[in-house]
Amino acid sequence: MNRIHAWMLTTAVATAAGIATPALAQDARPAAKPAAKAAAPAAEVSTVGDGELKKLIALSFHSKGPATLDGVLQQDATQQACSQYPDRTHVPEAVAKKIEAAEIKQVKYPADGKYLGDWKEGEKIAQNGRGMQFSDPVGGVNGANCYACHQLTKAEISFGNIGPSLYQYGKLRGNSQAVIQYTWGKIWDSNAFSACSNMPRFGHKGILTEQQIRDVMALLLDPASPVNQ
Ligand code: HEC
User: Fold this and answer.
1) What is the 23 CA–ligand 1 centroid distance (Å)?
2) What residues are in contact with ligand 1 under a 6 Å CB criterion?
3) Residue ranges making up the domain that contains 3
4) Is there a domain that residue 75 lies in?
5) Do both 49 and 124 map to the same domain?
6) How many domains, the chain?
7) Residue 89, pLDDT score
8) Could you give the C-alpha distances from 94 to 97, 98, 100, 217, 219, in angstroms and in order?
9) 6, 7, 61, 139: which one has the fewest Cβ atoms less than 10 Å from its Cβ?
10) How close is the Cα of 226 to the center of ligand 1, in Å?
11) Ligand 1 centroid vs 165 CA: distance in angstroms?
């Protein structure tokens, strides 16, 4: 079950139907006529089932290019389980353990044992936020947009902080086989190490290719990379 405010529903339906939202309609009323129910309780909260919410999403959006309705509405078991909790910190430990155990089985390590590519390419991939949007070509090459959530280098001052800073990642952790394998697994399937992570499952969902992951790995772990200066 998802708890959403009644006004969100009304606004989304109104927008989908191409009509003015209730808030706008109210603003347009003559000023002399005061709002009738000024004292009414402010936040009306209703409980909407998943089925209703899916119908509403299907009504409000349409597929275009690589951004498809199915991509939003079809959830795998992990996404379904994670949707039950408002955020990651609310996932019960037993549920988290089950998800992580299932996700780690999905990690594919490079068959040739080559984990590290070219950090210069990795930096371009980490900077690139294109791919999988309605305005992108179907089957095009995707960026990783790591900077949207992480600090990585000192030179780049524009970065998000949903995720921890990865500045000096390799310098601080070294590049033992254990660190290399963990980092690959984390990028391939973030949920293998923290259930219901906000970080995309780059390998598992086919967002990045194996070679792109090697390049991003080098960005994090190569001693010559600006991440480790
Ligand atoms: C949408 C936000 C988001 C994006 C994009 C993202 N991450 Fe993350 N990342 C997170 C969050 C949040 C965490 C911390 C929680 C967790 O571990 O899942 C994290 C954790 C990590 C960790 C583990 C850090 C540790 O201390 O062990 C690594 C490594 C990492 N990210 C690398 C990357 C790389 C490389 C990219 C780009 C290919 C990337 N992330 C893109 C959100 C993101």
Assistant:
1) 38
2) 126, 144-146, 148-150, 162-164, 166, 183, 186-187, 190, 194, 197-200, 202, 216, 220
3) 1-27+42-60
4) no
5) no
6) 2
7) 87
8) 5, 6, 10, 31, 34
9) 139
10) 18
11) 9
